[in-house]
Amino acid sequence: MRTRQERFLVTFPSTTAAMAMEGICRAGDVPGRLIPVPRAITAGCGLCWSAPLEERQRIEDLLIRERLDVDGLYTMWL
Fold first, then answer.
1. Terminal C-alpha separation, the chain
2. What is the pLDDT of residues 3-25, one digit of tens each?
3. How far apart are CA 21 and CA 25, in angstroms?
4. Is residue 71 part of a domain?
């Protein structure tokens, strides 16, 4: 059985925005991956970026620097 971890989630208004986030994070060696949005959260495209909680500040800085369009920022146990 997998151990639950607190994760930092970024939701997006469109699949295009989610894919842009994935590309930027891959290019910058930022850990995480796209996952389906958990039921407790609603988002426009149904995808979110899930990353370790300790990467929150780095990802927030990246979102500002790259001017990525996001729906919301969350922490959640997954």
1. 13
2. 999 999 999 999 999 999 999 99
3. 6
4. yes
3-state secondary structure the chain: CCCCCEEEEEECCCHHHHHHHHHHHHHCCCCCEEEECCCCCCCCCCEEEEEEHHHHHHHHHHHHHHCCCCCEEEEEEC
Q: What are phi and psi of 25, to 5 degrees?
A: -70, -40
Contact 61, 54 (CB under 8 A): no
Domain containing 49: what range? 6-77
Q: Is the pTM of this model over 0.90?
A: yes
Let me know if residue 1 belongs to a domain.
no
For 26-60, the pLDDT digits (tens) are 999 999 999 999 999 977 899 999 999 999 999 99
Residue 50 within any structural domain of the chain: yes
